[in-house]
Write a structure and sequence with these properties.
Length: 259
C-alpha cells in the first residue's frame, strides 16, 4: 500500500541539521527534476525579492521566506514529517506513533512536494516556500514538470499494492493514475455532514485524513483493493461510502459530523 499525502504550505524550519543532499533522498529517479527546480528557485530568490515574492505569491510581510529560499542549499534539514506542519500533520502526530506504526509510515507513505516531487517521511529536507500552483521563470508550471517525471517514481514506490490518494487538487495535478492502475487506486474525500447537508470543509478534511493515516499505520492493515480499504476504515469506526469504479480509480467518501 502506498498513501500519497499533500504537503503543508507552512513549514517548521529546522534549527540545526546537515544541509540538503539531493543524492540522499528517496526515489532517486527524481534527482534531475529536483535539481532543476531547486536551482531555479534559488536563482529567482537570489535576485529581486519583490519579483520573487510576486512569482511565489508571498505577501510583503513574508519577504523573509524569499531570503530563506535563496539559501536552501546551505539550510539545515530535518525529517520531512517534522518539517511539514498544520492540521493534517498535527492529527497524524508522528512523534506519538508506536515504533511499528512509524516503520510502516516510512514504507507506506509518500508526501507530494512542489520542490521534490515526492518524499518519504524520513527524507531530510529544509523548509522551503514553493506551492503546487506556482509557475517558475524559465521552467513554467511546476505541476507540468512533475507530470513529466513523477510516473516512474510512483510506480516504483507503489509496487503491486493499493494506492490511497489523499492529495489536495493542486498536488493531484502532478500525477494522475493511468487506466491500467485504476482497480488499485482509491481516492478519499472527506465530507462534513451537518443539518442533513454534506460539504467539504478544509479543517475537517485535513484532520480526518491525518487520523485515517494514523489509524492505518497503527492497525497494520494493508488492504489491496478500494473495497477492502473501505471495510478496514469501517472497522476503524468511520462511515464510508464507496463510489462506482472509474478509469481514474474508486472514490471513497468518508462522512464525519464532528472532529
Amino acid at each position: 500500500m502506498l498513501i500519497l499525502l499533500p504537503p503543508s504550505e507552512g513549514k517548521a524550519a529546522p534549527r540545526r541539521g546537515h544541509p540538503l543532499d539531493l543524492a540522499t533522498l528517496s526515489l532517486p529517479v527524481l534527482t534531475e527534476p529536483r535539481a532543476l527546480l531547486l536551482d531555479t528557485l534559488v536563482d529567482l530568490c537570489s535576485g529581486d525579492p519583490e519579483k520573487a515574492a510576486e512569482v511565489l505569491e508571498i505577501g510583503r510581510t513574508q519577504l523573509a521566506l524569499v531570503g530563506a529560499n535563496a539559501t536552501l542549499p546551505q539550510a539545515p534539514t530535518a525529517r520531512a514529517d517534522a518539517v511539514y506542519t498544520g492540521v493534517l500533520y498535527d492529527a497524524l502526530d508522528v512523534a506519538t506513533l508506536s515504533p511499528a506504526a512509524k516503520r510502516r509510515l516510512g514504507s507506506r507513505v509518500a508526501i507530494a512536494s512542489a520542490l521534490f516531487g515526492l518524499v518519504r517521511p524520513s527524507d531530510r529536507i529544509p523548509a522551503y516556500r514553493l506551492s503546487g500552483g506556482t509557475s517558475l521563470p524559465g521552467v513554467g508550471p511546476v505541476a507540468a514538470v512533475w507530470r513529466e517525471h513523477l510516473g516512474p517514481a510512483v510506480t516504483e514506490a507503489l509496487g503491486d499494492g493499493l494506492l490511497v490518494d489523499l492529495r489536495s487538487s493542486a498536488y493531484a495535478a502532478f500525477w494522475r493514475a493511468p487506466a491500467d492502475l485504476a482497480p488499485r487506486v482509491a481516492t478519499v474525500r472527506v465530507l462534513h455532514e451537518s443539518g442533513g447537508r454534506r460539504k467539504v470543509v478544509s479543517h475537517f478534511n485535513k484532520a480526518t485524513k491525518g487520523r485515517i493515516v494514523r489509524a492505518l499505520m497503527e492497525s497494520g492493515a494493508a488492504p489491496h483493493t478500494p473495497e477492502a480499504l473501505a471495510e478496514v476504515l469501517r472497522e476503524l469506526s468511520w462511515h464510508v461510502e464507496v463510489g462506482a469504479p472509474t478509469a481514474k480509480g474508486t472514490q471513497l467518501d468518508v462522512v464525519v459530523s464532528d472532529l
